[in-house]
Amino acid sequence: MSFTEKIAEYRKVLKQYKKRLQGKEEVVKRFKQDAFGILDPVEKSGFVVNVYGKEVFIERPQEPNPVAYYYHRYFRAGDTPIHASARGLLTEGLYNRDIRHERVEAYAEDMQAGHWQSLLSDPISVTSDGQIVNGQHRIAAAERVDWSKVENDPLFLVVWEVDPGEARYADGSRRTDRDQRVIRDKLAAVPGKESAARWPPRDRPSPAPSLTRH
Length: 214
Known about the structure:
The protein has helices at about 5-20, 100-110, 135-145, 175-190, and strands at about 25-30, 40-50, 55-60, 70, 75, 80, 85, 125, 130-135, 155-160, 210-214. It is of the alpha+beta class. It folds into two domains: about 5-60, no CATH class; about 70-214, no CATH class. The strands form four sheets. A four-stranded mixed β-sheet has the order 9-8-10-11, with helices on one face. Mean pLDDT is about 85; it is low at about 200-205.
């Protein structure tokens, strides 16, 4: 389920919760996380209803917490292999290539060490529907950095309202033939964006730039 679908589902369930909550008191209860008491209890908000003489706690729906990018390597839990996987909003991109974790790690190391410099000639490009067509590795890396421990605070130029078709031409020196095919096929598969696979379009509006720090 994509993050957009998760938000839609959350809003639907929250609406149902609020309807059931009417006239009832919302309370906070503490719950054990494990049977042995090793983990600290967690607090949950909700209300209590009586079902056939038994109190039942109805938990308030939790809003999804978006993560730009998360990756874990292959490892084994006992005899069970856990395969490497990547998750987060950036892995759900409609127009961009797959993220290379090795590049994310390299960028993050440079940023954490304070070596990353403002690179205003190569902006992070975002479409009108919030998709990243250039700069996804920098965003993924920036999220992994503890910026409170970095003296150097570089600027990132962000350009908004970029046409999706520009994904085929951005950062071309680092993109392989396979990357280009993936981007082209993604563009062609999105309803209403088929023409973007044959970029450049005509009469497109000028993108709007802005400056931001990490």
